Amino acid sequence: MPDMTVPAVLFALVLLILLGQWLVVRRAKSMQGQAVPDELLRACQSAQMADHSAHPFEDRSGMNVLVAFDAPNCGACRKMAPVLDTTAKRYPDRVFRLSVMEHRALAQTLRIMGTPTILLVRNGQIVEVFVGITPLSRLLQRLEHAWPEIMPVDISPAS
Q: DSSP secondary-structure letter at 3?
C-alpha cells in the first residue's frame, strides 16, 4: 500500500489556500451597501485637492468614485495599473489609487485583507467590491451600469 502522507498534506495545503482566498473576498464583499466612511471621504478629497480636480465632491451624496487599494510590492497591483490608468482616462477625476501602506487605518476600517481591492462608489455608497485582478472590460461595464448619468471620455485614437 503506497504512503498517502504527501498527497494528503498537499491536498490540505491547497484547501487552506483556497479557504484563505475565499475569506479575503468574503470579508471585502461585506462592505457592499455600506456608506463610505469619513476617512475614505477625506482621503479622496485630499487627493482631489492635490490634483486640482474639476469634479470636486463636497459630501458623500455626490461621491461617485472608483477607489483602488494597492501595495507597492504587489504583483497583481502592478498588473492592474494599466487597467486603472485607462479607467482614469475614461473617467477623469473619479479614479483614486490609495496605498494600504499609507492608509493602514482606512484599510483596516474597510476590512481590506488583500490587494488589489477596488471599491465602486455611487452616491456615497459602496455598491461593488472587486478583489484581485479585474479585466478592463468588466470594470468599464460595471462603471457604465453604476454610473449611467456619467459619460465616459472617448480615449480612442483619432482616425
A: -
Q: What are phi and psi of 97, to 5 degrees?
A: -115, 120
Closest CA to 99 of 135, 33, 47, 59: 47
pLDDT in tens, 32-71: 888 899 899 888 888 877 665 555 666 677 889 999 999 9
CA–CA distance, 48 with 138 (Å, rounded to integer): 26
What predicted TM-score, i.e. pTM, was given to this entire model? 0.82
The three cell numbers of residue 40 are 475614505
CA distances from 36 to 56, 101, 106, 122, 152 (A): 16, 20, 11, 10, 23
Which residues lie closer than 8 Å to 28 by C-beta, 6 or more apart? Answer: 111, 112, 113, 114, 117, 129, 131
